[in-house]
Write a structure and sequence with these properties.
Leucine-rich repeat, LRR (right-handed beta-alpha superhelix); 290 residues; elongated; 12% helix; alpha/beta
């Protein structure tokens, strides 16, 4: 067990590492002077703007700097802070790619980077966020296919998932394990293909699901979760049909064509006899003599 002095030294070293690794590469411009009190000479970063520590003062658990007009990129080192469960850098001017280290943290609960200019692809490693509850990467410039393992088994605690207003393509993932979802937004991307029954199978009936303004096609599956959505949550998919849209799915032409009709009269044997009708008298056949 570490002594108090060892803990202090370890924490001071961490404070220096935190500052040296983040400040030079994190921010190119800080017009609001949000980071003016980030000083590596401090014994602890727990009083720095945007930084929150656990009650024991030996763990940084939160980095929250939204609406700060910060310009720069997110350094890889930020993902190595072991107990950092909340990262909110939304509504800034951050660019570059999303560090893979941010997607491999078992304790991460909130990752909000919306309204920036972050680009690149979302890799399947996003499934490493086993404790995640909020993922908001909306209004950025992410490209490539929507990861099919976006919510694999074990990643079932997500309540808010917002990837709207990016450049993502590909199909909606099957086997979508969204038992805890309250809000799902994939709108304003380039997603295509069918909305499969498997996609909506585990989504709660009261969750809000916005799939608008993509290139989805076919009939919306008959699912309580999908049927409960507002019509506008499916708007902008011109080849999508079925409830809750007012656009009904057309019957395939092979089924809508009337069967071939003939003008020949039906055979006598096919005409049913009237019930209780009087039978015709039997006719005797006269056989002529030869």
């Amino acid at each position: 067990m570490m002594t108090n002095s060892e803990q202090y030294y370890s924490f001071w070293s961490f404070g220096v590492f935190f500052f040296l690794s983040l400040c030079p590469s994190f921010v190119l411009e800080d017009p609001l002077s949000i980071l003016d009190n980030w000083d590596y000479n401090d014994a602890t970063p727990c009083l720095w703007n945007g930084v929150t520590c656990a009650p024991d003062m030996f763990r940084v658990i939160s980095l929250v700097l939204p609406n700060s007009k910060l310009i720069g990129s997110i350094p890889e080192e930020i993902g190595f802070i072991q107990h950092l469960h909340t990262i909110d850098l939304s509504n800034n001017f951050l660019n570059g790619t999303l560090p893979v280290s941010l997607l491999n943290a078992s304790e991460r609960q909130v990752l909000s980077l919306s309204n920036n200019a972050i680009s690149g692809e979302l890799t399947e490693s996003i499934g490493g966020l086993k404790s995640l509850k909020v993922l908001n990467l909306s209004v950025n410039a992410f490209v490539g296919n929507l990861p099919q393992k976006l919510i694999p088994s074990g990643f079932q605690f997500v309540e808010v998932l917002d990837l709207s207003s990016n450049l993502l393509n590909g199909a909606l993932p099957d086997n979508f394990d969204g038992d805890s979802l309250k809000y799902l937004n994939f709108s304003s991307n380039k997603l295509s293909g069918l909305v499969s029954p498997q996609f909506a199978k585990k989504i709660p009936a009261n969750a809000a699901i916005d799939l608008s303004f993509n290139s989805l096609t076919g009939e919306i599956p008959k699912s309580i979760a999908l049927s409960n959505q507002k019509t506008e949550f499916f708007a902008g998919n011109k080849d999508l049909c079925g409830k809750p849209l007012k656009k009904l799915c057309t019957i395939p032409s092979t089924l809508s064509s009337p069967p071939n009709l003939t003008t020949n009269p039906p055979a006598i044997a096919d005409i049913p006899k009237e019930i209780n009708s009087t039978p015709l008298p039997e006719q005797k056949t006269v056989v002529g003599k030869v």
